[in-house]
Amino acid sequence: MKLLKWKDSYSVGENNIDNQHKGLFDISNKIYNLVEEGVDDSEIFRELFISLNDYTVEHFIYEEMYMQSKGYPQLEEHIEQHLEFSKKLKKIALGINKDSHIKDIGEFVTTWLLQHVLDEDMKYKNFIYR
Q: Helix 75-94 crosses helix 102-115 at what angle (to 10 degrees)?
């Protein structure tokens, strides 16, 4: 797991989406910092994952509506990726008191965020600003 640092190259060219991505990075970094500090309180992590879930739902809806307004042809595939993330996050959150290891959960969130923003979100940026 690593600390996420926003770079201008991550921008998709839409201020609200960029700010939402920065917010997602912040939540991921809170998880990172707790792991680094050795915090192992499932209640704290549960609250963070609820916050992450709420934030991603709002972000996904906004982003999907934006892509729709621009006529992005791969919208359905993008929505499917958002749904898969939400399902995985929910499954992880339900397992926090069981076998889930907080560091593994943080690794999933960090890896997914970077991959999704740098690969998938750049596809619609390239479509819109071609």
A: 170
Please give the pLDDT value at position 98.
55
- Euclidean distance between CA atoms 86 and 64, whole angstroms: 14
Distance CA 108, CA 111 (A): 5
Q: Say if pTM beats, i.e. exceeds, 0.90.
A: no
pLDDT at 37 over 90: no
Name the residue type at position 86: S
How far is 89 from 102, CA to CA, in rounded Å? 12
Do residues 20 and 59 make contact, with C-beta atoms less than 8 angstroms apart? yes
Cβ-contact 22, 6 below 8 angstroms: yes
The whole-number pLDDT of residue 88 equals 86
Q: Report which of 7, 22, 38, 12 is spatially closest to residue 106, judged by C-alpha positions.
A: 38
d(CA 105, CA 127): 32
The SS3 call for residue 69 is: helix
d(CA 3, CA 5): 7
